Amino acid sequence: MSNHDFDAIVIGSGISGGWAAKELTEQGLKVLLLERGRSITPADYLGEHKPAWQFPFRQLGDRKRYERDYPIQSTCYAFGEPTEQFWVKDSEQPYGQDPARPFRWIRGNHLGGKSLMWGRCTPRWGPINFEENKRDGHGVDWPIRYDDIRPWYDHVEEFIGVSGQTEFDSPFAPVGRFQPGMLMNACETFVAESIREKFPGRRLTIAPSAILTKPLHGRQPCHYCGPCERGCSTGSYFSSISSTLPAARATGNLTVITDSVVVGLDYDPKSRKVAGVRAVDQNTRAGKRYTARIVFLNAATLASTQILLNSTSESFPNGIGNRSGVLGRFLMDHPYLTVSGVIPGMLDKYTIGNRPAGVWMPRFHNVEGRTAPFLRGFSYEGSASRANWTEGASVPGYGSALKQRLREYGPWTFAFYGFLECLPYRDNTLTLDPVRRDKWGLPILNTRFEWGKNEREIAKHLVSDATQMLKSAGATDIALPPEELPPGGFGIHEMGTARMGRDPATSFLNGHNQSHEVANLFVTDGSCMPSTAAQNPSLTFMALTARAANYAVQQMKAGAI
Amino acid sequence: MKRVPESLVLGRHSLDRRAFVQLATTFGLSLTVPGLAAKSPNTPLTADDWTLIGEVSELIIPTTDTGGALAAGVPDFVKMMLSNWFSEAERENFIAGMHEFSAGAFKKYGKKFGELPASQKDQYFGELLATAEGGATAPRTPFVVLMKRLTIFGYYTSELGATTELHQQVAAARYEPAAVVKPGDRADSGIPGAMYWFNAS
Q: Do B156 and A80 touch (CB under 8 A)?
């Protein structure tokens, strides 16, 4: 193992870090995985299958404690009394926001990271998504095309288990190596048929989802309890804990150190490589330095960028590898907007089982050239469900009549959750605070984020198209989102601050997620993305990671690194 | 169509829709005018107060062929909420509303609420709730409305409400997308999503 502690160091154990650890260990490398948070095992899934009355606050959560400790995290849909152990205490890990241009940083610092609480919707990106930056000139050209990533999508889907439909192949969601898809319920089927009939080119199907419908590698198919974000003891949805980390451990090549906060990377100007990784124990604050031949940085977009910016040297006074000055710029996210309506009828139908996959409609604007009054487009997630007692306070009356009414299901409501593509803007930034430091000595990360004109224009169409489709399916009581877009970060699809590109002058990473300047440094989380598309990005992070890891091993074997 | 305040549009799941339908449709945020809460001293509630809370909760969800609010321990839930979950202003508003409710009963019937015959309790409460739900604006959310929210939430998240009155399906181990509702079937009691946005103000 030469004079290094390890062959490779992977920083971060979430969706992309788990994949880096798996691929590198399976290729025979001795890998050190550093995780800043605590260890997690399925025994930590404290909320799984727990009924409301067993929570001290009946699932409402300890509001006053949340206001004090989790003011940002508690705005996330998946945060709550059954999941609160998975979120960062904002009060203990502060970051900066520009008051007029806020960014919500949603974090899960523990083994497995946000893969434990993620949304699990995993469409591929299509060919157009890798070409559009070049076509319309917004953002740098992707250094790869769909054909470069396609085999890695296959590889990732087969390993993590993606269930999905295979009948409709959209250019924005190519059919992959899917397990059988989950089924749409009666109302979703009705809405889908109505859309298919009245809106050519638009198709609503079950979403491709990283949730099993068949056994895979010792993991069990979904048992339909519903709220995946509480954790899953049968490993039915993909997380690092259920999937990649066990595979990496099985090689015998993995060392995991938790509670280890990476604060910087040391640069050696002679070899032009990362010479060491500096970390601090999150509890004892003892410092430690590790060395390896290569480093994979997978701490998630904001944290990875923070580490890179904090890794300064004479050669790189503005952050390791940051000759171009793009590090920390072009922060992106997906704004998402909810439009819902009550769909009359089908009152004799309900569902048995809580299906944790949603429905999905791929982008349908600007498919063949630009036809819409905006660039790029949007996609919809969605779901339909029947009302129950949780809407009881809005049912007039009281007494036995109210009780009888709440004994039965209420009407169906269909909701679209639209995600729209965000263009990269130079002034959406992450910077280090010149003064304030966190308790591990890392300069606090300051954020500055605002949406542009194109996002606001897309949003209008996202809302009006959803409204039209709901109305044409007979919907009443249509509820619209606020006119103002939500702050950045809400989509939890933060990307772009260490982007890939062809030109070292305008990008941080090359087409293999390798630093243009520092040959043994790879960054394969969301920070590498030159654009957001309108699809959920995690599958693409995983495919890019697997691709980069295999490239890195080849380069090491060839003696190039 | 209505616009929903951003603070209520928080998630991707139907939880949010339910929350804002609940909050925005019927009670309307207009019912809440911060700062107008009556300045009532923050005194602990008396035994009479708890009796009143219990009686009102039982009016909202009564015992029928299954147990009602009292059997489900709703007053204990209200106590937990008032002590640990409501803000100071919300608690003061609740207590002031309760005193107003009591005083109103005395004014109307010449007796304390607790001493009224069942029919008059029902009539008094029913009229106040109908007025509130009829869209009347008030300087603050009325006691009867807060009690209705608390009772419904406390009842259907209790073991009795969730498993005996309604049906609780934890893990069906299968998915039937278009199961047929049979007579006597009860709705599922599950809260969709991780958090339910209770409005105490």
A: no
